[in-house]
């Protein structure tokens, strides 16, 4: 009798397990739990890097954009453009530069002499011969005051004062004084620079980590493009 009851109880439990599992799967989750799961799934589920990309096209000297099916989503109409980054693309209209969104709407007026793509929420712009930075609303957050400027990376951007480059933070404060003839973006807390015609590496405080010991060349091609005229 004891063995019969034991087998009966085991059978009841096994029959009930699928129903219990189904009930657990169908149980409504709280908004907080649902959000946490969605965030977890978003981190672990691979997404296509080209799914939402737009690609510039050129016809008769004008630029527009197509999607990844070849459909024209922003008609050819701009004098120049340099691709979308952080949801906006710089365009040139009547010789001036502004920004469009992915629908082609001009969200930042074309009032700048020159500019480039957003990085870390800021983009350099040129007005009256000087460089500064705007945010994605078009607000001038660092007034034009530099002789050249480059993109932000890891919270710092190379800017030129006179003939030398230094680095500013997002407030426009000069955190590494101008002393380099060429600079690169920071990567992993380190940037390559050229000082006294020698290649060197610095950290985010400007401390030299390594410097070239052999004879420097008269000109270096390792420096960033900041020392050259901007194309846009």
Topology:
Elements: H1 2-26, H2 31-44, E1 55-59, E2 62-66, E3 72-78, E4 80-85, E5 88-93, E6 96-100, E7 106-112, E8 114-115, E9 122-127, E10 130-135, E11 140-146, E12 148-153, E13 156-161, E14 164-168, E15 174-180, E16 182-183, E17 190-195, E18 198-203, E19 208-211
Describe the structure.
The longest helix is centred in the N-terminal third of the chain and has 25 residues, at 2-26. The N and C termini lie far apart (90 Å). 17% of the residues lie in helices and 45% in strands. By secondary structure, it is α+β, with helices and mostly antiparallel strands. The chain has helices spanning 2-26, 31-44; strands at 55-59, 62-66, 72-78, 80-85, 88-93, 96-100, 106-112, 114-115, 122-127, 130-135, 140-146, 148-153, 156-161, 164-168, 174-180, 182-183, 190-195, 198-203, 208-211. The radius of gyration is 28 Å and the shape is elongated. The protein is built from two helices and 19 strands. Strands 4-5-6-7 form a four-stranded antiparallel β-sheet, with no helix packed on it. A four-stranded antiparallel β-sheet has the order 8-9-10-11, with no helix packed on it. Strands 12-13-14-15 form a four-stranded antiparallel β-sheet, with no helix packed on it.
